[in-house]
Write a structure and sequence with these properties.
Layout: H1 4-21, E1 36-41, H2 55-63, E2 69-72, E3 83-86, H3 87-94, H4 98-106, E4 113-114, E5 123-126, H5 129-136, E6 143-154, E7 157-164, H6 178-196, E8 201-204, H7 215-220, E9 226-231, H8 247-262, E10 268-272, E11 290-295, H9 300-308, E12 312-315, E13 320-326, E14 331-336, E15 344-352, E16 359-360, E17 375-376, E18 382-388, E19 391-395, E20 400-412, E21 422-426
Parallel strand pairs: 1-2, 2-6, 9-10
Antiparallel strand pairs: 1-11, 3-5, 4-5, 6-7, 7-8, 11-12, 12-21, 13-14, 14-19, 15-18, 15-20, 16-17, 20-21
Amino acid sequence: MLDIRRFTFVGVILASALAATVAPADDRVPNDPQPRWWKGNIHTHSLWSDGDDFPEMISEWYRTRDYNFLAITDHNILSVGQKWMKLSEVKRRGGEDALAKYRARFGADWVVTRGEPGNANHEVLLKPLNEFRALIEERGKFILVQGEEISDRSEGKPVHMNATNLRDLLAPVGGATVREAIANNFRAVREQADRSKREILLHLNHPNFGLAVTAEDLAAVTAERFFEIYNGHPGVQQLGDANHPSVERLWDIANTIRLGELKAPPMFGVGTDDSHDYHGSPGSRPGRGWVMVRSRYLTPNHLVRAMKAGDFYASSGVVLNDVSYDPSTRLLKVDIRPVQGARFTTRFIGTLADYDAKSVARQDANGKPIRSSRKYSDDVGRVLGETEGLSASIRLSGKELYVRAVVTSSVDHPDPSYAKQKQQAWTQPVGWRTRLK
């Protein structure tokens, strides 16, 4: 007959022994973490598409410079399975010593080649994310997130969107217009998120690249909530031109249309590198722009949830100790991390509900309409307040559609993507939620 008491006693002893072997929590992953800021880049490229370095080397660059997360987002491809690349192409992009630097960092046994050195058939294996991440990631300090740049076209213009925390590759969907292409690709991402039961963030890349996306396009696809307020590639026309507004102006126009006319939530601004060049040559180098996300945990789902809630800011160099908005008092506050020799100016930008909504189409020298955002009054995206110093705040009156802050340092950007660039930080628009209830 089975002695239940004996088995119960043995079970208690075994459970106690197992409990004794569990290591105590350490400071990297506390059991009751407080929200903190995590630094990351969600737009970068490797040899898997049009970058000039191996993904492991790129990941090491960010890991060793105090980033906490990185998404390598190659064009219309995921780093999955095997991909062989000719050494001649690696050298053409990254220089003669690209392979030597890769081998010196990760070892001869890690770097896999085939064919005869010096011959056209000499190739190197590009490792997939699920293999190299084990060498790079650090618990509670640095993670890699699967991503893709969905590179589409419509109306003869580039329509590029980055999907962060994807499970499966998504092919560009296309559309008859730029707006339709944005909406169709957003729908495809949302469907994958529903199928995979994971948080996926989709953001529109560099709207002024190819002068492709107007403010009205940004406003129209109300389901898409994210776009790049700063992209570090020198070729994306961050400041616009005589006939096309700057990216920051696009943001204010789009959010004014959304809140003032469409009764839709505003867009949030993302900062990225869009890096391709890692060997010191001119071009889109790493380290120019990033996001700071406030989350309790350093995991893809938690980071994406925080960004969807607007709990992040974009930066090209300025670091904020804190940014907060209290809906009950309508107080927006910014606390800036000091830097020796730097002075900081915070401007609070917004549009009042009674703004002048009239606009006119832009025309060329012959009076013909051009593809560009319309001209709007100075009521759109007004400076509502300006403060010098390390702390700045503004109390909203309740008449605003939204208010956001942009902090500008007196210090030049150390690796500018356009002339006379200063280091900046952009907070997300606030004060708008009550208008949508």
